[in-house]
Structure formats: structure tokens, C-alpha cells
From TrEMBL:
PANTHER family, alphabetized: AUXIN EFFLUX CARRIER FAMILY PROTEIN, PTHR31651
Subcellular localization: Endoplasmic reticulum membrane
TM ranges: 6-34, 46-64, 70-94, 106-127, 147-168, 234-256, 276-297, 309-337, 343-367, 379-400
Coiled coil, from the record: none
Protein name: Transporter C5D6.04
One annotated Gene Ontology cellular component of this protein: endoplasmic reticulum membrane
Keyword annotations from UniProtKB, A to Z: Auxin signaling pathway, Endoplasmic reticulum, Membrane, Transmembrane, Transmembrane helix, Transport
Keyword Transmembrane helix: yes
InterPro entries named in the record: Mem_transp_PIN-like (IPR004776), PILS1/3/4/5/7 (IPR045033)
Highest taxon listed in the record's lineage: Eukaryota
Role, per record: Involved in cellular auxin homeostasis by regulating auxin metabolism. Regulates intracellular auxin accumulation at the endoplasmic reticulum and thus auxin availability for nuclear auxin signaling.
Membrane topology classification: Multi-pass membrane protein
Length: 401
């Protein structure tokens, strides 16, 4: 296929994203005030709890089988590599740039985590539906592409809320320690000790009873403390997010033949459940894209972001990572690690060239570490993505064909 046709094919989905994003930004303008902050919050909640899980579940149930799941085993490893390489490059950049402590978690998060769910779910179907698409039959391409993108979304979500979440948490804790006032560490334990000292002249129970009680309490604390620490570190509530639960359900239905026969297909007795989930899921992509536009508008209203940090993030995400990704995927193809499927190769390559995940803004808000600057980063990276994604997508399609 001619390079110009590949460029047009790659440009169309990006233009669609930009147009719908512009609609979101337009609706969020103060003059119209349709997508005001409260409306965005409610729509985001519906997308998070209803639309996205329904979309992921319905797609995976229809498209993923045990055989296909075995064939795409490299995808979780590939996504993990994007996170590790991005974090390593971000860490090296922080050492060179000497950024302020409050920005380090945000920079590392933006370098590590790409938008592995929403953008592929938008871009892949648009590429498949183009008349000049290099990936063959529209229906087969769309079905396979959405399955790959949904699996990418599920895996990416788990990595973001385990890996990136804890990276930002660690750096936000460092900020808290730097800002901690001397003497502020006096907590409940110190208060109890002081209280015991003040009342030591008026014993109510014998020393033996008190010692026995203290030993019993100490043993309970020793048992419970590791369990509490483990639960806090795992953060199961965040890890088992609706999209993750939807992915698990979709994989179970797709991989287990009796469940697939029950829910998927024209003759399935419970096909109405799958059809309903699919209808709900269809609303996910336009709603997400409109929200991205509305949220990115906040970046125009803020300033104060150090330009060198912004440039560093752009260079890592749009130059360094894609180049390294090409080397990794070409090496995997050369050694026969991944199966011969141009669409699969394209998605694996695309995972290295995506802008930062929108979830990073949520995580920075949770810890109060660089949340103001996050809007500026998102605005700049997504504006640049309109050019970089088109160019890299064109190159990736040429590379895999």
C-alpha cells in the first residue's frame, strides 16, 4: 500500500477523536456550561461504573477464546515493558532535570502509563472501517481489533492501579515527610504512654494483670499489623475496579465453552444479557471522548508548569518509547515469540506511542501531588498526540505489512 494512503488511513481516526474532543471542550465552555464540573463528574461515574465494564465484558465474551488467549500471551509482558521502560526513562530524566519533589510522581506516572484503553478502543475500529485499511475484512478486523484493545485496557488498568498508583503514592509520601512539622508525630501511642505515666500513682489493677493484658494486646497487634499492611498495599477496592471485573467476567464467558454457548450467539438462551451489555457499551467511546475534551479544557486555565519537564515527558512518550518499542516488537517477531498477525503487531507497537493515561489525573488528585500541573501535561500531550499518533501509526502500518 502507498505511504500516502497509509497516512490518510492513520489520520482519519485521530481526526475523529479530535472532532469529538472539540465537542466536549465546546460543551464545557463557561458560556454554554452544559458539561459543567458536576455534569462531568456524574457522566464520568456512569462511564466508570456502567459503560466501560459493559463494553469490555461484551467484547471479550464474543471475541476471546482459550486458544486466542494463549496466542496473545505476549501482550501483558509487552505492556509491562512499556511501564518499566517509561519509568526508567522518567527516572533518568528527573535526575538530569532536577525537578521539584512535588512534580516527580506526576512525571514518572506520565512517562510510565499510556492510554492503553480508551484510545485503542477508538482508533482500532476507525482504522478497520477505512476503505483503504490494510488489515483485511472490516468485520473480522473490527472484532479482533476490539478484542485486542479490550484486553489491553484490562491489563493496562491493573498495571496503572498497582504500579503507577504506588509510584505516585511513594513520591507523595516523600513530600509529606519533607513538610512534616517537628513534634507532629506524637500519635495515639504517645498519648497512651503519657496517660499511663500520669496515672501511675493510682493503680486500679495489679501489675501482673496489667502485664498479661498488655502481652495479649501486643500479640494481637503483631498478628493484625501485617494483614492490615497487606490490604492497604494491595488496595483491592481500587484494583478490582468495574472495568477489571468486567474483563474477568468477559474472559470467563469467552474461555469457558458452556458459558459462551449460554450467552453468545443467535441461539444462546441468555443472548439478551449480552446484547444489553453491548448496547450499554456502545455509549462508552463517545462519552469518554467528550469527557476528555471537557477535562483538557482545564489545562488552558492553568499555568506554572516548568517547560523543561513538559518537553521531557513529550520526548520520552513520543520519541524514545516508540523507537525502543519498534526494536522490541521486531525482535519478538524475528525470534518467533509472537504469532504472525499484522493487526496484533500494530496494536503491540501502538502501545508504545500513546499519550499518558487519563487515570493519572485521578491518582494525582487522590494524593494531592501535582494535580494542578496534570491538566497542563494532559492538554499538551494530547494536542501533540494528534500529530505523533498519525505519524507513528502510518509508520507502524507500513512496518507490519
Amino acid at each position: 500500500m502507498q505511504l500516502w494512503k497509509l497516512f490518510i488511513t492513520a489520520l482519519m481516526p485521530v481526526l475523529k477523536v479530535l472532532l469529538i474532543t472539540a465537542v466536549g471542550a465546546f460543551l464545557a465552555l463557561h458560556r454554554f456550561n452544559i458539561l459543567r464540573e458536576s455534569a462531568r463528574k456524574h457522566l464520568n461515574t456512569i462511564v466508570y461504573y456502567v459503560f466501560t465494564p459493559a463494553l469490555v465484558c461484551s467484547i471479550l465474551a464474543k471475541a476471546i477464546t482459550f486458544r486466542s488467549l494463549v496466542m496473545v500471551w505476549f501482550m501483558p509482558l509487552n505492556i509491562l515493558l512499556t511501564f518499566i521502560i517509561g519509568t526508567a526513562l522518567g527516572w533518568l530524566f528527573l535526575k538530569i532535570a532536577k525537578s521539584p519533589p512535588e512534580m516527580q510522581g506526576l512525571v514518572l506516572g506520565c512517562c510510565a502509563a499510556g492510554n492503553l484503553g480508551n484510545l485503542p478502543l477508538i482508533i482500532i475500529p476507525a482504522v478497520c472501517k477505512e476503505s483503504n485499511s490494510p488489515f483485511g475484512d472490516v468485520d473480522i478486523c473490527n472484532k479482533k481489533g476490539l478484542a485486542y484493545a479490550s484486553l489491553s485496557m484490562a491489563i493496562g488498568h491493573i498495571y496503572i492501579w498497582t504500579f503507577v498508583y504506588n509510584v505516585i503514592r511513594v513520591y507523595s509520601c516523600k513530600i509529606c515527610n519533607l513538610n512534616k512539622v517537628d513534634g507532629s508525630t506524637v500519635g495515639p501511642v504517645s498519648a497512651i504512654e503519657t496517660d499511663l505515666e500520669n496515672h501511675s500513682t493510682e493503680p486500679v489493677v495489679s501489675a501482673e494483670d496489667l502485664s498479661e493484658t498488655n502481652n495479649h494486646v501486643t500479640k494481637q497487634k503483631q498478628i493484625m499489623k501485617p494483614l492490615k499492611t497487606l490490604v492497604k498495599k494491595l488496595n483491592l477496592k481500587v484494583l478490582l475496579a468495574p472495568a477489571t471485573i468486567g474483563s474477568i467476567l468477559g474472559l470467563i464467558i469467552g474461555v469457558v465453552p458452556p458459558f459462551q454457548k449460554m450467552f453468545v450467539g443467535d441461539k444462546a438462551p441468555l443472548r439478551v444479557v449480552e446484547d444489553s451489555a453491548s448496547m450499554l457499551g456502545d455509549a462508552s467511546i463517545p462519552a469518554i471522548t467528550v469527557l476528555v475534551g471537557a477535562n483538557l479544557l482545564g489545562g488552558l486555565k492553568r499555568s506554572g508548569m516548568k517547560l523543561s519537564l513538559l518537553v521531557g515527558i513529550l520526548v520520552i512518550r513520543y520519541i524514545a518509547l516508540p523507537i525502543l518499542g519498534v526494536g522490541i516488537i521486531k525482535g519478538a517477531i524475528h525470534f518467533g515469540i509472537i504469532h504472525q498477525d499484522p493487526l496484533y503487531h500494530f496494536i503491540l507497537l501502538l502501545q508504545y506511542a500513546l499519550p499518558p493515561a487519563i487515570s493519572i489525573s485521578t491518582i494525582t488528585q487522590l494524593f494531592g501531588a501535582g494535580e494542578t500541573e496534570c491538566s497542563i501535561v494532559m492538554l499538551a500531550t494530547y494536542v501533540c498526540a494528534s500529530f505523533s499518533l498519525t505519524l507513528w501509526s502510518t509508520f507502524f502500518m507500513w512496518l507490519v505489512l
